[in-house]
Amino acid sequence: MSQKPEHPAVGLGVIIQRGEEILLGQRKGWQGGFYSIPGGLLEVGESFEEGAIREVREETGLELIDPRVIAVTNNLETFRRTGRHHVSVILYTQRFRGEPGVMEPDKCAGWGWYDPRQLPEPHFEASRRGVACLLRGNFYERESGEG
User: Which is an annotated GO molecular function term of this record (predicted)?
Assistant: First the structure.
């Protein structure tokens, strides 16, 4: 039997904007069917920017240029639903090279460009919260009822 971690994991999410749209993928595996910005877990010794560049390259084949931290999310809805607690650092860029491709077909059904004001559902909590922070110009938004 596996033990529950004592501390949340640190996730990364990257909002990649092209024109008026952002890149979203439909997940497979954990949280399968949910849409999300690209991302994953921060590795030991990585900066947020290094992790974002690595994750996006692994998932989409895109080469990010100068991603910047814009928000942090505490994903308590996901914790209550799945028992896994992640705190996610959200980065943003409009600068990248290449076209998105499905580099990890076991983790993503496909990538597409979407209006950030009309996110497809179901939507991964960290992605939804990160996009909301971008649109509202906030770094962090408390969940209603959060201490």
Answer: 8-oxo-7,8-dihydrodeoxyguanosine triphosphate pyrophosphatase activity
Domains and CATH numbers, the chain: 9-136 (3.90.79.10)
Residue 84 in tokens: 């896994």
DSSP sequence for 15-31: EEEETTEEEEEEE-STT
The rounded distance, in Å, linking the Cα atoms of 41 and 62 is: 18
pLDDT tens over the chain, length 147 residues? 456 778 999 999 999 999 999 999 999 987 779 999 999 999 999 999 999 999 999 999 999 999 999 999 999 999 999 999 999 999 999 999 999 999 999 999 999 999 999 999 999 999 999 999 999 999 998 876 454
Rounded CA-CA distance 83/4 in Å is 8
Measured distance CA(142)–CA(95) in Å, rounded: 29
35 and 123 Cβ atoms separated by less than 8 Å: yes
pTM, two decimal places? 0.93
Tell me how far apart the alpha carbons of residues 103 and 22 are, in angstroms, rounded to a whole number: 18
CB contact at 8 A, 98 and 63: yes
